[in-house]
Fold:
Amino acid sequence: MTERWGVFEARFAGPEDATFEATFTHGDRTVRVPGFPDGDGTHVVRFSPDVEGEWAYVTTSGAAELDGCTGGFRAVPPSPGNHGPVSVAGTYHFAYADGTPFRPVGTTVYNWVHQPEERYRETLEAVADGGFTKLRFLVFPQGGNHVGHVPDAFPFAKDGEEWDVSRIDVAFFRKIDRAVRDLLEAGVQADVILFHPYDSGQFGLDGLTAEQDAAYLRHLVARLSAYRNVWWSLANEYDILSRPEERWDEVFRTLQETDPHGRLRSIHNWIRLYDHNKPWVTHVSLQNGSAVAEFGRALLYRDAYRKPIVLDEIKYEGDTAERWGNLSARELVHRFWIATVSGTYASHGESYLVDGGTLSVVAGGPFRGQSPPRLEFLRRILEEVGGAGLDPIDKWDDPTYTAGIPRQIYLQYLGLDAPQAWTFRLPQGVRGERLQVGDRFAVDVIDTWNMTVETVDREFTLTSVERNTATADAEPVALPAGEALALRIRRIDVDPG
Amino acid sequence: MTERWGVFEARFAGPEDATFEATFTHGDRTVRVPGFPDGDGTHVVRFSPDVEGEWAYVTTSGAAELDGCTGGFRAVPPSPGNHGPVSVAGTYHFAYADGTPFRPVGTTVYNWVHQPEERYRETLEAVADGGFTKLRFLVFPQGGNHVGHVPDAFPFAKDGEEWDVSRIDVAFFRKIDRAVRDLLEAGVQADVILFHPYDSGQFGLDGLTAEQDAAYLRHLVARLSAYRNVWWSLANEYDILSRPEERWDEVFRTLQETDPHGRLRSIHNWIRLYDHNKPWVTHVSLQNGSAVAEFGRALLYRDAYRKPIVLDEIKYEGDTAERWGNLSARELVHRFWIATVSGTYASHGESYLVDGGTLSVVAGGPFRGQSPPRLEFLRRILEEVGGAGLDPIDKWDDPTYTAGIPRQIYLQYLGLDAPQAWTFRLPQGVRGERLQVGDRFAVDVIDTWNMTVETVDREFTLTSVERNTATADAEPVALPAGEALALRIRRIDVDPG
Structure:
């Protein structure tokens, strides 16, 4: 018995070097699922059923012991808290399989899995307690600068000086398994980074051939993809790895072909953007801090790609000398709010020096910065929005930079201005339901830094709807002192549905 | 005898409804060139040789009179001023076939060709005298609002209420021919807009079927593509025409297959951007005024598309009520300079009411606004830059928004600030030649509105080059009063080549 979107696992004995797959059937449906070796002659298949009912399987293999094995299980309703995997919803947003909106407010600890046990646990707790909904981390350990700890396990055995990808180190991959499961338990999406350029000649894992990539991918996909919180991030700063772009296309295609669960796929850049319009990219993962340093930028990526935009690196809160690592907490929170009203999402990371030279974005540990509680506050605001998510209403011509769901709910972020008062005004836009004279709204004043929400004690009724703008004939709303305020404008004369 | 990149034309008699093509050969090369009917049983083939020497041709047709006709010509060196067709150079820029850089500073008169003769002439003179290097105009006449003149010719004959695209109106297409030739003579690129949504039910030319599109395209390509100044713009505001995106893909593919000269291809949007990463798009033609209303926006399109970015509609200088038609001249010129330091290009248009209701961007006529001389001034500045063109040097992290060619020449635009002084500072960036201590520069102060260039009467020698920034230990440069100043920073200790 396995719950829907849970993990069914079967184990078989067979020759060390055998390969096998299992075909799962449910009524007319069949799903081919790759198996993987898990050490000591044990082979494993993991499968996540997406519908309830009876599933049966049969294995196929060139090795007789692994061929023709049959079995089955019943998929039962999901337990509370299991909303299924996340996929793209409403073009620019995400939702769980059961329809619950998913709002990415992620963080990043690159070398998390490769830390000593106590540090690993501290990070997991920090991420979970911090309320982050996604964590980016590397499969291959990081080497070189900013790395203080050499891990005790590596993915492959060595053949002289060369990695032999056919000889998997099970201890290494079980650490990755555990990390994904620990995040699943904590309700956090695992943004698994498959390749990275931060090796500095220390381990040589940035120098695999295309064939070695494919063998590694087959193993990792077979091992992890049944976990419903897995997202595939092909690389961090892919363009620092000097590989032709076709090779990344090939990795995407291999993932598409071998992943029976079709988990989300993205790739993250240094200065050269991958063509995210390619069909195998499910959402756009970007590094570009400047895109959310000012209004009016990040939303251009939405137009270019028509996919969810996740700004996975917008520079880090921290105190390091590099310009990517010394944002103030206020600036980072400000950028998240700009991302929000741009109809995009952002990720957090901390760049404080720890352990005498390592960075917290590499090694993890408890958060030191001031932004996490403010980002959790933002996440709660986002989760209170029903529907797919917030889209810019009048994307290129709105001086109020309002995102929302037309005629339902809106967020206006006032940014670094600190106005004394706010006059009710909504953009009309050209998509979705049209604002009408007589529509009634409540207004909440949000202090994004002090994490307060105060509802204005009067209603606002639209008295004028022109081509681009709707206004209410009402006194301005007095605003509290301080910058980084936002307005939430909620329709109240209808059931928001 | 035809000059290289000129037009060779041959005419043949044959049945009205025949089709034919000619195969041109030069040594080992063969080029298949479609012919077109030109009325009264005359069929024409036009071909532009891209290499000098002897060319021969032979025709093929199902009609005996048009089959197996042979001939030839000698292609001689181009005359002065003939630099060949424009194509993409340096990823983000353009150059003529002889290597001369081409700097797009375009304008727009949609319904130009369909005006009375005197107005047609006035517009041509205004564009040429204004120094614009590209003109966007419609093939099909515009109907509905803002249109005061019903043209005297239409592209096809009518079969009852329906257009019969197989019956070309030669008088109509000869007007298009003439427009392209007139622009060629004036040294202006013809950005020919093949389809548009501004019909308002008046002519019905926005309702052709895919098959009718293809027949029209074959005729237009055969007729026009030999002119070296032709650019194909598939549509203005393509997404207002309610056609599936695949249909636009098909138009692009038809152009690719039928155009023997491979002229530039783009498509222009209303609010939904086409996927400009598709291989048949040669350069990105965009409508989005906000992209150049502030710094730091337009350059994001470069990353997304890795093609030249031409912002063909950034709102118009004018006095109309619509928000797309009432920019001040200062604002429009400002936006062109933002486009410039963003490593992109922009187009001009005027939206003044003329002829009792028509707009000048539709009907043309002499320019009424103040921006054209400032744009000609900008064009001269751009033409003084050698090399492919100006690229942002440190694209996401440069508070000076400097574009240039590393270690050679730079433009910094100070925008709407009006600082009293400027301190020498250059970004280093991560691409191209590295700035070195000791590099020597001259600085020109440019007043973009008053159209003056004043060279600072001292040299600047780099005394410090850090990771991201190079500075000279020198007194600040006093700046003249006024906003919209720019600095041109020229390396002087080497031959710029």
In short: Chain B touches chain A at residues 271-273, 275-278, 288-291, 293-294, 296-297, 300-301, 303-306, 323, 395-397, 430, 468 (CB under 8 Å).
